[in-house]
Write a structure and sequence with these properties.
Length: about 90
């Protein structure tokens, strides 16, 4: 039986970064830097739910996430997620 072929992205597929997306692993790395160690699911949820900028406090994912949802995020660091343009760093 031949080996399964590895799927290549379509040549005309939009670049995830150009489409306002980032990998979940980037969010986890930002949290790791802020905490000084790899976060537990509860720590990631708490960090993501209490971000602050000059406009005040906000939830990084647009709403509060639970530790169970943070566990899924930690398990899928390569998954691209949408980013609101006003939240992207320049």
């Amino acid at each position: 039986m031949p080996n399964a072929a590895v799927e290549e992205p379509a040549k005309d597929a939009p670049d995830p970064i150009a489409a306002g997306k980032m990998m979940l692993g980037f969010v986890v790395r930002e949290c790791t830097v802020a905490l000084g160690h790899a976060p537990s699911p509860a720590e990631l949820a708490d960090w993501a739910n209490h971000q602050q900028d000059d406009r005040g406090e906000f939830c990084l994912f647009g709403r509060a996430i639970t530790a169970a949802e943070a566990r899924v995020i930690l398990a899928h660091p390569g998954r691209p997620v949408s980013v609101r343009p006003e939240r992207m760093r320049r």
